[in-house]
Design brief:
Elements (H helix, E strand, L loop, with lengths): L23 E3 L7 H6 L2 H4 E3 L6 E3 L3 H14 L12 E8 L5 E8 L4 E7 L5 E9 H4 L2 E2 L2 E2 H17 L6 H10 L7 E4 L2 E9 L9 E9 L2 H7 L7
Antiparallel strand pairs: 1-4, 2-3, 4-5, 5-6, 6-7, 7-12, 8-9, 10-11, 11-12
Helix pairs in contact: 3-5, 5-6
Protein name: DUF4163 domain-containing protein
Keywords: Signal
Organism: Ruminococcus intestinalis
């Protein structure tokens, strides 16, 4: 199994198939204009936080969803999101620094998108895209299913990190590289691209594994302390 990111810097989001009994609350909203969507750039995307990563994204789940759809459209994709389909998973949680946050998830055709949001600021701590190992390596028509997962992961990263559709292809490459041995975490411009893996659960007859591609901001100090390698083409 790939090396798992240390707990203090990995705000691990639970898959719904491991917590299907949790209370689910539908999230509604979405009011950002196109000008607001385009005005959110990487220079404005991060702000300081007292959470374990020292940073959060300067965006809430509603505006993130609208940015995601705009970038998906501009990059030629068709995996759009609807605010009504985001669901909150369980109760408020606390990270190692005592910062309270909610986990949200979105089921979309054998994949699950995840978002962690600080409960006080309502701003995003990290985003992720998960599936099972068997599904990731499967073939969907003429395409590998992994291409779809990598694309959604890259669009999520671009949307929350203040990037554009021009960066999606690069982000797909970075996420793909996290599947290589000893590269489960890679840094790029004070953001971490990470792959976390684990077992699906004791009740899984196929003994399948889970995969979760995650993206989150960190401070310069954390990059040095955690010794995360920097992505280079």
């Amino acid at each position: 199994m790939k090396k798992i990111v240390p707990v203090l810097f990995a705000l691990v989001l639970a898959f719904s198939f491991a917590a299907c009994k949790e209370q689910k609350t539908i999230v509604k909203g979405g009011t950002a204009s196109l000008d607001e969507i385009l005005a959110y750039t990487k220079e404005k995307a991060q702000e300081d936080s007292t959470n374990v990563n020292g940073k959060r994204y300067n965006i809430n789940i509603e505006k993130f969803t609208e940015r995601y759809n705009e970038i998906m459209f501009r990059s030629g994709g068709d995996e759009y999101l609807s605010m009504e389909n985001w669901k909150r998973l369980g109760e408020t949680k606390k990270d190692a620094n005592g910062v309270e946050y909610f986990c949200y998830y979105y089921d979309i055709d054998n994949a699950e998108l995840t978002v962690a949001v600080e409960s006080r600021s309502h701003k995003i701590m990290n985003v992720g895209c998960g599936t099972t190992m068997s599904k990731y390596v499967s073939i969907d028509g003429e395409h590998q299913y992994s291409e779809r997962i990598l694309n959604m992961s890259a669009v999520m990263a671009a949307a929350v990190g203040g990037y554009t559709s021009d960066d999606v292809e690069l982000f797909e490459k970075i996420f793909n590289e996290t599947t290589f041995e000893n590269k489960s975490s890679l840094a790029y411009e004070n953001n971490i691209f990470n792959l976390t893996t684990g077992k699906k659960g004791k009740k899984d007859e196929n003994n399948d594994s889970t995969m979760l591609f995650r993206y989150f901001p960190v401070t310069d100090e954390h990059l040095v302390e955690w010794n995360i390698p920097t992505y280079s083409e």
